[in-house]
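User: Show me a protein chain along with its predicted structure.
Assistant: Here is one chain, sequence first, then structure tokens.
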Amino acid sequence: MASSPSVIRNIMLTGSLGSAPPEKHEAILSRRQQQVSTARLFYTTSPSSRSGPSSSRTSCILPPFASHTFIHALESLHVKTQFVPLGEADGVCVTLADRLGGYVIGQDSDFFILAGGAGLSSKLRGYCPIEMMWWIDGELGLQPEPSSASSGWSTAFSRRGPSQSRQSTFLPPAHFVKPQLVLTAFAPQGLRARLRLPASVLPLFASLCGNDYTPRSAAEYLFESGFTPVQKIEKVARILREQIFSPRSTPTKSGSAGDHAVELVKKVIRKLSSRPFVNDQALQDLVDAVIEATFQYILPPSGECCSTYPFCGELDELGCQSKSSQMKHGTAREAYAAAQRRGLVNGIIHAWLYPYRVYLWSVLEDPSGPSLKASRGLQEVRRKAWEIAEEGLGGLRWPASPEEEPEAAGKVADPSTRLDADTSEGTLVPTGASSEADTVVDGDSSDPEESRKPGTLKLSRSITEYVRQGSSVGIVPHQIELAVREPQEIPTCLQPLEVRLRAYLVPLQSEIPSIVSLPPHLHPAIATIRFCILTARTGRWRRSEVEAVLKSCIGCFAAWQKDFYTSKTRRDGDDGAFPILTNRNCGLVAQLGATMTDAHLLAQALLLLPDTPDERGEGPGLTHLIPFVFISGVVLHTLLSGDEPVSSSVWRWTETEQETYETCFAAMTDGIEDVIVGWTRTPPWSAPTNTASESTDGDREGAIEEKVRRNKKKNQRGRRGDKGFDTGRFEALNGLTA
């Protein structure tokens, strides 16, 4: 099957940005730990090896705003989108494709089960795996689609052609004249015909083979050691056929349909088991877990109950309360709900649904150092975001009682560690306090055993975040306690724009007149860089690095603006140049990414939407929720390496950008000159004057230079044989190490 790009952009797409259910907690933590291992491999590989296009093709960490960039691109192309607030969006994708008579494109084996399962009409045309799509140049002779009588199952071979370097398979190569997209589609009936199983049994088949919801211990009971995935599939399918189609498998008349289903699962597990169970309870626990994993394939209903969904109570036992006179915070909830339907507040949605398990964005940081997300400064930024969101929504979905919290959290492991915010490195130390992630212990109890008694537990208004522990691979929970806020007539998220813009700058330590007076669309870049300079933990920022990062943000934003207002599509051929990825530069980019993601969360809580009009009449609109317009990895690393970018598609620099850069640099570094290494260097755009203020700055710079000269003389005397050792001579080099 082939299609042109103009056809693809008119398809309605459903984004899989829903909040993952509690049953996937262990799977999510495992993936986060795998990302830490990937980062460790990256930082232990030589810069020259990891900088090439062939490096790390199988494992990677996506940039923090990859999904948000994709959503913004779809919105700019007027593509219809739908976002699922609760759970995964796989079922909604299949239901929507079945209603429209289209295809499902994704990268999840669950689509084979959902597309081939029961409850669908015959309109769904099939599932197209992303890894089996590629581009060709020129016309394509299309093969006729298989008839409905065929099984739809055939052997396929990849024909990707020449290597496409690091470019995404979603984009055609730049040198193609007439690109055609080739998709491999699997018919809905293909899998069940190949396995010879009815559609209603496919969810049970997938749960027995193992999915994200099946306990990991299940494989130890059901399969022999060393079984390949193909052997597991064949074994499960064979035993299911034996139990379903066997003449002796006819259920008795007594008992309900649910009882018969449970008995079938129990028989299949007994037949599959490769070793005996410890007792009947162990067997029953596995049966219950497999049935629970099967429920995840139930196709969800479509539609929303009201304009405040999902904040209206529809997800709770009482149902939608939008028409109830007791419902408060309706205006703020409607504003958050409208932003959710555009996919702009996914972080706030997840924290509202599951405040006891919040997974923070991963960045490519060095795992041998302290966790960037564990720093005290970023904790305060996130705390402010949670408090603003809680105020606007009238509270998060806190567990009703301490006994309900472990069940709601998916029975997570006992978090016996906490993040010590008072330490400069942000390491995690044992607490010996609460036995659950979502409860706290009364601080008056000094006996550890006494503190674990149920009577000492109390409900906490704290967000449980999962962060990396120190310099290890482990991902552990840490609680951020929320302050009690005085109720306001108008919540912060609905305050005038000027108030919300200042509320954004305060946690980022950037509410100073010189920054407040800048156009608001520049605030995310300026405030983020300034915050990074002030909170650097592994070496102070050098002036050349500050200048490079700011130039990258200004130039990338200028190129983005030009492309946005230019109707002609232009592609460069300069994308083959890859800068050297040094550890120092990667660390700076990681710090920038960690700060920008948390600032993005704060912007979500404040509802600083992209189409919010600028009250000052300056700039193209707010960029707080689209900060990716300031970032290009190639441009950023190129400038940090001391070179000039060559790709004009992502970089633009004229006199206008130079003037903006000078204004922003002066505002951003206002009052923090002392914490920047190498500040004595004269800016390239400034000319010497005789003003009193500059004279004072010059005296200070001269004193520093004199100190450097004295230290050099001491260093020379030491090399000539002085036995004295004066550590003060290294003070001028403080912070220069990578």
